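Researcher: I'm comparing several assemblies side by side, and this is the next one on my list. It has 412 residues spread over two chains. Same procedure as the others: predict the full complex and return the structure.
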Amino acid sequence: MDLSPRPVGPAPRRRAGNRWWLLVLVATVAVAGFVVTRFLTSAIDYYCNVDEIGVREGCEAGRRLRVQGTVEQGSLAAVAGSTRFAMSFNGRTLDVSYLGDPGGIFQECIPVVAHGRLVGDVFEADRIEVKHSNEYVAENPDRVSGDGADVDGCSQQQG
Amino acid sequence: MADVVPGADLTPTRPRGVATRATRAIGALAAVLFAWVLVGGLWFTPAEKQQGESVRIMYVHVPSAWVAYLAFVVTAVASACYLLGRRRSLGFDRVAGASAEVGVLFMALALVTGSLWGHPTWGTFWVWDPRLTTTAFLFVTYVGYLAVRGTGATPEQRARRSAVLALLAVLEIPLVHFSVVLWRSLHQQASVLSPDGDVKMDGSMLTTLFVGVVAFTSLFAWLVVHRQRVQAMGDALAIRELDDAIAVRGVAG
């Protein structure tokens, strides 16, 4: 039997696919870092309720804020391309001005989050987000006034 | 594998499939339920009072998110079985990998459909709020998990590394689910699994949503079983190729 060592050939090449997976792994870590960073940045001024402006830490009146409140019934008006309304939370009310149409399902009596700054007594928003509750009610054109949804007198007009 | 003749044609005369009677039944069930969701979701359920027609996205979004959670939990359980099992069976590792692949697919679907729903409802496709951010983070984590599975290693090394990662990653799921309770979030709280236990949803919407969850879960089971069987065949082929190479070398020596 021939037990002499085999001739050594060229070293086997590493599979190129492995390197691609390594790149994907590094990219994934980078994206995860980006996501966390963005979240922490956003969290700094996320969601002050209307009644917390100037009261809670991080909700100082002079800084950029995100303010949560409910659009008051009868306060919605379109003035020279701006949407103006009052939003309230825990008995405190804030006048809001937004240039343009907020979009989404924006309407009276719906909770919203306005992004912007307080200028004088008016909150000048440059972004409006509309919150939706976890209730899913069927649209019913035959619904009569006085059912549970309409007892509080909130209209469902689009803003 | 010692009886393999080097150079022999290993192509089977009749291709072996990965389907069984059971998987065909699961597939048929999923197809029927998807048809139900399609018809019910588009025609027989009403529009929502505030969201209007966009509520129909919920019949895909919610089941997708549910299946993604389920998939990642299955990955964790299979990983634990691998690590704690006496034999360290690679079968558990294959189930973990297959489930994670399907989970990533459905998580992506949940993110896309959520974004498509967000624009007509919230007025924006995306916000960096707690629910959306933690969900994106969960998605990225499992893309990373799949990347770890793809790095060069022996099957045993791959299984061990990815099992440890899966057991850590699954801890993110409670954080995602309860993010809307822990922090102020634009995303609404759960409607079906709400903290107060009260389901606030129209009856026909709830029924269609439930059927959707069962349909997506059936599809998940069908995909995972097939995927792990394909992986098992791939591993068997790799072993056969190795045996063949050893046999060739033996003849040459």
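Model: For your comparison table: Chain B touches chain A through 46 residues (CB under 8 Å).
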